[in-house]
Amino acid sequence: MCDGAAARLILVLSSAVLSAADSAVTFGDARFSFYSPALARFQLRAPGAAGWDLRASLSFANSALPPPAPVDVAVRFVGSDVVELRTSALLVAYNRSGAQFSAESLSVKLLAAPFSTWAPGVSEAGNLRGTRMDLGCYDTFENCYSGGLGWGPLSRDGWAAFDDVASLRMRPTGGIDGGPWWDGATQLLSDVFFFGHGLDFPAALRDFAAVSGGAPLPPAAAFGVWWSTWYDFSEAEFAHSFLPRPQVVDCFVVPRFNDMHEETGEVAAMVSFYHLPSSIMRHERHKTLHAAYLFYYFTLPAPGAAPGAAPSVPLRQLMEDGLICARNCGVEVLNCLDLMDNNSFLRDLKFGPGDGKLQYYLYNYASPELEPKEVGLILL
């Protein structure tokens, strides 16, 4: 460990290999840990505070684990207040005279492309984002997704920094003993995880997975939605998915009529498809194949009909009308899968079988082999 006393005595370049048992450099009220040459953790405690909060957090569940291998760090002291820490990927400079981590007290320079420099407060405009704190959303579409994805460890700038000081800390037992899984907030002033992998995105993802833990699994209840032919769309979700947008999605409805042949304002059937054109290479005249893919559809029985009654619009007729609508929208090829009830109309409507198969892989879940008609998951 390097402390203030050592800083006053050793004013030249010194090297140390930080072992798994002693993987941090302490300088004044700051502590610098290295999980890999490009992944560092910067902690700052209040003046006079004792100890360091090394508990796992909600964001970084494996942060309390030692690094998988020793990290070679060169330590250089400049006067009594400045320390420089160099790995093969990063050059960290810290001035302990500041009360907070700031652009004046802390900086990190990348030693690989794009050779950028980070300091607290610098804009993360290049961050590619990519994380969400939840597995699903039970609110309106706007409330769930209007804010987009959160911070991610990948960035066009070559670095990504996340201050974990606001995350709840977890108890070592994780709630197995019947108590809560959380153990309060930290008293640290800053707890920054710094990913300085440059443009080596695979390495950044490996380090991120190492400290954040495995991806959480979807709850079992989710498969009741994914493996069914019915989903309770909110009005906002339905509008986003099916209201026609040129060259994105088209949707056609069959209105319901009363005995006077007047529209009732209800819908008897619906068919939709989304556009996915392909480029035609090396052809003098034709440049684009205007293809579309069958999306959601439904056809309902007449009002008051007994459960299991036949739909008021036969599925084959609905699909034939859908093909005509697609042609009128400029679609040249309409593709669909042989899942759910699609096999009931594919042959009659002259759909040609493809030469490939679509495989479904569910991470960390095992499933018995399913027939196509048993699959209700539509992939975009």
Describe this structure in words.
- This protein is an alpha+beta fold and 380 residues long.
- It folds into two domains: 209 residues, Immunoglobulin-like (Sandwich); 153 residues, Aminopeptidase (3-Layer(aba) Sandwich).
- The strands form four sheets. The protein has a six-stranded antiparallel beta sheet with strand order 1-5-6-7-8-9, with no helix packed on it.
- The longest helix is centred in the C-terminal third of the chain and has 14 residues.
Short précis:
This protein has 380 residues and is α+β, with helices and mostly antiparallel strands. It has seven helices and 17 strands. It starts with a helix and ends in a 34-residue tail after the last helix.
Q: How many helix segments?
A: 7
Q: Give the H and E element order.
A: HEEEEEEEEEHEEHHHEEEEEHEH
Instruction: Order the strands across the largest sheet as they lie in space.
Output: 1-5-6-7-8-9
Radius of gyration: 29 Å
- Ends apart, CA distance between termini: 53 Å
* Average predicted confidence as pLDDT: 81
CATH class of the largest domain: Mainly Beta
User: What's the structural domain tally?
Assistant: 2
Helix content: 10-25%
CATH-scheme architecture of the largest domain: Sandwich
Would you identify the regions where 5 or more consecutive residues have pLDDT less than 50?
A: 1-21, 219-228
Number of strands: 17
Reported for the largest beta sheet, the result is:
6 strands, antiparallel
> What name does CATH use for the topology of the largest domain?
Immunoglobulin-like
Q: Strand fraction band?
A: 25-35%
Globally, the shape reads elongated
Structural class by helix and strand composition: alpha+beta
